Amino acid sequence: MSEILIKAEHVSKKFCRDLKTSLWYGVKDLSGELLGKKKKEVQDLRNKEFWSVNDINFEVKRGECLGLIGRNGAGKSTLLKMLNGLIKPDRGRIEMHGRVGALIELGAGFNPILTGRENIYNNAAILGFSKAETHERLDAIIEFSELSEFIDTPVQYYSSGMRVRLGFSVAAQLEPDILLIDEVLAVGDMGFVLKCFNKMDELFHNTAMVFVSHSMPQVSRICSDIIVMTNGEPVYHSNDIAEGISHYYNLFDMKPGNFIGNSEAELEHIHLTSGNKSSETTEHFEIHHGDALDVHITVRLNKPMVKPRLGLMFYDKESRNFGEVFNFDDYILIEQAEGHLSFVARFQNMQFGQGVYSITVGLTEFSDDTRKSVFRIQSAIYFTVVSKKHGWAPMQFEPIWERLEK
Q1: pLDDT of 208 over the 90 cut
Q2: Would you state the pLDDT for residue 390?
């Protein structure tokens, strides 16, 4: 299980921002190779060039999955294309051992005028499988793709999700030694995505995988190692997936979301406190796992309201709503109000895992037993939780454990 199937050493790739200049550089480089001139190690960038990938090093063994994450344009897809042999690195070297299955771009490798069945044979041949081997696995591929009704339809009439179904089914059922996946599962429906991950679990022990995605739940589910890329360079490389995801989240600004509502009321002020710390005195408010958290809110009612009620919704950085507070009536009962109202919601023990979270604030009015939404501010305020517990899930519980004797 320690067999190294993918090895990248100082891999770098440069591109040119200008098409005409890029073509001219390409002609010069190609002419030099054809004339037998020894290619010099690329050190400096020529005019209008930039490093899309710069000095990447890693190994992926059989039974491991490397996650590549970063902002758009970080160089992830370029690196994956070099691993698949679609483009050559300008410096460094790549070793790939075994059959390679790749899902890099939607429709890549498909002939649009051929049917799904014919494309299965074509893709399998590219992977190095004979016609007899493909024929033996054909029924399993079609069954997994759930496209039996359209398998003899030209691929040009397939939707993006159908193309993913077919491409993943070929790559998975033929069981390559190396599997490269670049974000394509993002267009699949939830049922098929879960099916794909279950299949990847089956392949995991005998396959080396490289997985590129902007979905951190997917990354945390499948990856055993992680590289965070920025401007073509690795800024974090470790098997601590949770810490890598935290680095990824820190690449993005934290700004309040949309205001949904009208002029009947507004959120005048919100801030957080924990012990002697206040979000009013720091740009990035931080607490530890298990700390208390107080949410201070002031709203202004611009007209009389009957039974105004506050609601708090907790979101993680993936904008997943994982916790809510709507039991306002259990503590404060307001029959009618106008003007300024101030509240504090006290949370005694925040069992949140490490990461960045936000609080969405909503105000409703109950008049004549009818619930009316007054306003909702998405991600009105952010806070960060640090923890020794390196799980990635938003909630990290602390049960009382007891060992039972047989």
Answers
A1: yes
A2: 62
Q: What is d(CA 122, CA 134) in angstroms, rounded to the nearest whole number?
A: 10
In the chain, the amino acid numbered 89 is P
CA distance 382 to 252: 13
The residue with greater pLDDT, 328 or 24, is: 328
Return the pLDDT at 107: 55
Closest CA to 233 of 71, 19, 84, 96: 71
Task: Work out the number of other CB atoms within 10 angstroms of the CB of residue 285.
Answer: 19
Are 239 and 211 contacting, i.e. CB atoms less than 8 angstroms apart?
no
Distances (CA, A) of 310 to 132, 266, 334: 66, 12, 11
The domain 259-386 is classified under which CATH number: 3.40.50.150, 3.40.190.10, 2.70.50.60, 3.30.980.10? 2.70.50.60
Q: Is the pLDDT of residue 248 over 60?
A: yes
pLDDT of 211? 93
Residue 363 CA to residue 372 CA, distance in Å, equals 9
Q: Tell whether pTM > 0.85.
A: no
Per-residue confidence (pLDDT) for residue 76, from 0 to 100: 92
For residue 261, CA distances in Å to 204, 227, 364 come to 48, 41, 10
Domain ranges of the chain: 4-249, 259-386
